[in-house]
Amino acid sequence: MSDINKLIKEIVKFRDERDWEQFHNSKDLALALSIESSELLELFLWKSNEDFKLDKLKEELADVLMYAFLLADKHDLNIHDIILDKIKKNEEKYPVDKSKGNSTKYNEL
Amino acid sequence: MSDINKLIKEIVKFRDERDWEQFHNSKDLALALSIESSELLELFLWKSNEDFKLDKLKEELADVLMYAFLLADKHDLNIHDIILDKIKKNEEKYPVDKSKGNSTKYNEL
Amino acid sequence: MSDINKLIKEIVKFRDERDWEQFHNSKDLALALSIESSELLELFLWKSNEDFKLDKLKEELADVLMYAFLLADKHDLNIHDIILDKIKKNEEKYPVDKSKGNSTKYNEL
Amino acid sequence: MSDINKLIKEIVKFRDERDWEQFHNSKDLALALSIESSELLELFLWKSNEDFKLDKLKEELADVLMYAFLLADKHDLNIHDIILDKIKKNEEKYPVDKSKGNSTKYNEL
């Protein structure tokens, strides 16, 4: 039910029914991802931290994830692997003893 | 292996070891997501569409996905459900006969 | 002292000494502008509204403005004119009686 | 005619007629700037580098500049000064002999 590969198949099916793969070069997928993230961000503009519409958040988050998954699929990236690899890198950049309770960026730690 | 819930558990474990949940209000998670998407986009700046470093792409895409998953987790959103719901909405906005082979945005179709 | 055209000349001089105009197509200038705006935004990540470093803000804002000016210059846009035109449009979208003290977006007014 | 201070006065007048200064904390101005830059970027999505609508570009660029100017005005930043200061810094990061005809980022030069 939470299997990413099945989800990606649904997204690819939607894309291919519309013959849209021709537009989905890597650079434009990166643009689309950034644009959708910005639309999600707009839900919070001029608002306090938890003042947003949940229905809109669901839609914008789905848009973000769909482009992220399409970019992963295009380059045969295994989402499980790239996230676990990044967590390992972050563990080195943000050792618990230095970063606990501290939001400072690693290059300023 | 591609189970989203297990992945989210790993991300949350990394966060909680550092006691970072206190910083993760919804608005700042949306900022982080947008900022990471922009870092991914930067891989393509002044470059042609497929000229990018795959290792960097993996890292930036992982960062984007981690904040997207944290935002979903914060609001108990089921990623499978929100994506399938959005695909349904997109099927109405982009009917196959109007949008096949056509990248025009729905409000200009 | 605050003459935009003189400023643009300085920016163009810096660009031309490095022979960078060849990279400055409109799409990549738009990417650069979006990426710099995101770097400015990052100054506020995990922070309260007025908690930022002024020196960093100056630098990031300068970067944003330089790409905005380069994009205007590339298309011979008069910055004075495009801003006054947009203010006029915004006056129609946001009539004072409906929008006074109200941050709601025009399409939800 | 291209005097920035006069332009900023027009923008501030529009803002104050609507009593919007109360919403314009620095963080949200940075969000607005980033969101508007992303809307400008969207004009180029799925398009080749010079395939965009000039009328739309004018409007989006005006929006970007207005928020950049409002942020500068809020902190009494002199736009002329911050840009000339940044050009000086960039001259050190990008010496002509290393960066001529080369789009590589300074930290990879």
Describe it.
The structure is a homotetramer of 109-residue chains. By secondary structure, the first copy, chain A, is mainly alpha-helical. Chain A has 2 domains: 75 residues, Helix Hairpins; 31 residues, no CATH class. Chain A contains 5 helices and no strands. The longest helix of chain A is centred in the middle third of the chain and has 21 residues. The N and C termini of chain A lie far apart (40 Å). The mean pLDDT of chain A is 96. Chains A and B meet through helix 1, helix 2, helix 3 and helix 4 of A and helix 1, helix 2, helix 3 and helix 4 of B. Chains A, B, C, D: This is Nucleotide pyrophosphohydrolase. Chains A, B, C, D: GO terms for molecular function: nucleoside triphosphate diphosphatase activity. Chains A, B, C, D: One of its GO terms (biological process) is nucleoside triphosphate catabolic process. Chains A, B, C, D: Keywords: Hydrolase. Chains A, B, C, D: It comes from Chryseobacterium hagamense.
**Oligomer designation:** homotetramer
The arrangement of helices and strands of chain A along the chain is HHHHH
**Helicity level of chain A:** 55-70%
Strand content of chain A: under 5%
CATH homologous superfamily annotation of the largest domain in chain A: MazG-like
Mean pLDDT of chain A: 96
Number of separate helices of chain A: 5
Largest sheet of chain A: none
Sequence stretches where pLDDT stays below 50 over 5 or more residues of chain A: none
Second-tier CATH architecture of the largest domain in chain A: Orthogonal Bundle
The total count of strands of chain A amounts to 0
Secondary structure category of chain A: mainly alpha
- Number of discrete domains of chain A: 2
Briefly, what CATH class of the largest domain in chain A? Mainly Alpha
Tell me, what's the shape of chain A?
globular
Query: What is Rg of chain A?
Result: 17 Å
Distance between the termini of chain A: 40 Å
The most extensive contact between chains is: A-B, 69 and 69 residues
